[in-house]
Structure formats: C-alpha cells, structure tokens
Design a protein that fits this description.
four-stranded antiparallel β-sheet, 3 helices, about 20% strand
C-alpha cells in the first residue's frame, strides 16, 4: 500500500488515516480500461484526525466545507492509465488541498491611492489617445 502523504515540511498524513478505493476508470486505457481498476479514490477523515492541532483542523474544515462529507475529504484520480500513477496523482491532489486549507490567512490589503505622477501619466495617455482618434476622423462638412 502507498506510504504517508507529505503535505509540507512539518505535516505528514500517516498511511493509517488514509482510505484507498479502486474502481474501473472511464479515462484512457484502451481495451484494458474495461478490466483494470485504475481509478483511485483517496479519503481522509479530517474531523477525526489527531495529527492536526485543533486550530488547523477548524481552519481546514471551514475552508474545505463544500468538499467534506461527514468530515471526510475524498479525492479521485483517473487521468492516467496505470493505478500507480493515479495513486500518486490522488496523493498529490490531497496534499495540495490540505496545504492550501491549513495555510495562514493572507494579510489584509492596505488601501493606497495612486501617486500624483501615475495620475498625470494616465491623463496624458488618455489625451494622447484622444488626439490619435481625433486625427483619424475626417472633416465631414
């Protein structure tokens, strides 16, 4: 079975908390697509996981709320022909989702106003453009 899923430098989801399911894929595979179980579903019980601190678990549950079913995050992969590559893709997708969900919130943007030079350049460009368009017009008397 696959190993632990590494989310970032400090966080790794242990293999015992992961649940793998395999089924037939509708993706690429030629004739073998009807006989091999290459589609992969990887599930992780976020709500029941003990490896995340409570604050990170709450943040992740809030951000992944639409993807969670009873506190379980499920990721599927079926874009490759082999089950092994789909396992790797599902693990990478799960790691990316969890990493994004536990990331600290972005700093709030501080409102600024454009500099005087930027305003003057914008007005000058508008005047120049208007002159170009005015020059294209013919005098229709």
């Amino acid at each position: 079975m696959p190993d632990d899923v590494r989310v970032n430098d400090r966080l790794t989801i242990p293999a015992v908390e992961l649940s793998w399911r395999f089924s037939r894929s509708s993706g690429p595979g030629g004739q073998g697509v009807n006989t091999t179980d290459s589609r992969v579903e990887l599930s992780w019980d976020l709500a029941g996981s003990e490896m995340l601190p409570a604050a990170l678990r709450e943040r992740a549950a809030e951000r992944l709320g639409g993807r969670l079913v009873n506190g379980v995050l499920t990721v599927t992969a079926s874009e490759h022909r082999s089950q092994l590559r789909n396992r790797e893709a599902a693990a990478a997708r799960l790691a990316g989702l969890v990493a994004g969900a536990i990331a600290p919130p972005a700093r709030a943007r501080r409102a600024t106003k454009p500099s005087r030079g930027a305003v003057e350049r914008r007005i000058a460009d508008k005047k120049r453009r208007s002159q170009v368009k005015r020059g294209r017009r013919g005098d229709h008397d």
